[in-house]
Amino acid sequence: MAVLVSDPVLMIGDGWDAYRLLDSGNGRKFEAYGDYRFVRPEPQAMWTPRLDDWDAHGEFVPGSDEDGGGRWQYSQDVPEDGWRVGWGDEVRFTALCTPFRHLGFFPDMAPVWDWMGEQLGERTDAETMNLFGYTGVGTLALSRYGRVTHVDASKKSVAQARSNATLSDMDDRPIRWLVEDAMKYTAREVRRGRRYDGIILDPPKFGRGPDGEVWRLEEGLPELVFDCRKLLDENSSFLFLTVYAVRMSSLALAGLLEEVFAGMPGRIEHGDLSVRETGDAGRLLPTAIFARWSNPR
User: Fold this and answer.
1) What pLDDT, on a 0 to 100 scale, did the predictor assign at position 214?
2) d(C-alpha 86, C-alpha 88), whole Å
């Protein structure tokens, strides 16, 4: 039976050439994406900035309501079509300023990509799935271990993911690129009797599928996780679930996984994703909560 580890785990991203957290505070964060620097809102940065001046190329100014909106304001030139950055030895992708305040990838996921690789070890025949795969950086990281199914409801995001595969010279990797509603697709895979060695899912708080399907995290997540569990067996390696921008504890996610994975081997852990500021004694900025099931063998 999968054992729930009660003590929380902190997964820390220390930054790399493509991304650095330069400073944070007063509800904002100052970041470098390659050669370009940006300021974005960050409610969890409740402390005071360390630097006196944030010399940024642009800043995202949020809208008046907490559900979204806002726009970029630029003080220096920024490539409209984005710029090339990378992760690790193989993965290359485009960073760009999106209307949703993101820059085309989530840098706090870097320790998650490392962790998934540790679970799969030296395998090259693994079957994995990336639900809500966005622009595919996690998919490309997984593709070195075998076949990957990339699922996202946004046609534009999947197109960008395929473009990132081309940038990385990975067009020949065994990746299925699907513009699909995650819940519907996962349910179909269950009916087909499919299995996977690992699944990563990064669902939004709210979203719409390609045919107008409505996703609300608190309503849809339990059913989706139950279906994901049906696609895994005692020989599978992991499931990793991240959740952003919700009033929820990682313990809630762990409790869900504990129920879903009853009768399976392995262990369940939960905690926070975070990014460390650059420099001496860099502070840790929390970004998301997670729960994960792993099955070391």
Assistant:
1) 81
2) 7
- Whole-angstrom Cα distance, residue 50 to residue 1? 47
In the chain, DSSP assigns E strands to 3-4, 9-13, 19-25, 28-33, 36-41, 58-65, 68-74, 83-87, 91-95, 126-131, 146-152, 175-179, 198-201, 206-208, 214-216, 238-243, 267-276, 284-294
Estimate the crossing angle of helix 217-230 against helix 182-192, to 10 degrees: 20
How many CA atoms are closer than 13 Å to the CA of 113, on its beta-carbon side? 22
Closest to 60 in 3D by CA, of 70, 45, 75: 70
Of 171-175, 178-182, 209-213, minimum mean pLDDT range: 209-213
The DSSP symbol for 108 reads G
Helix axes 250-260, 217-230, angle to 10 degrees: 40
| Pair of tokens at residue 190 | 């269950």
Q: With a cut of 90, say whether residue 63 has pLDDT above it.
A: no
Which burial class, exposed, middle or buried, applies to 257 when counting CB atoms under 10 A from its CB (0-12, 13-18, 19+)? buried
Domain at 3-16+81-294: CATH code: 3.40.50.150
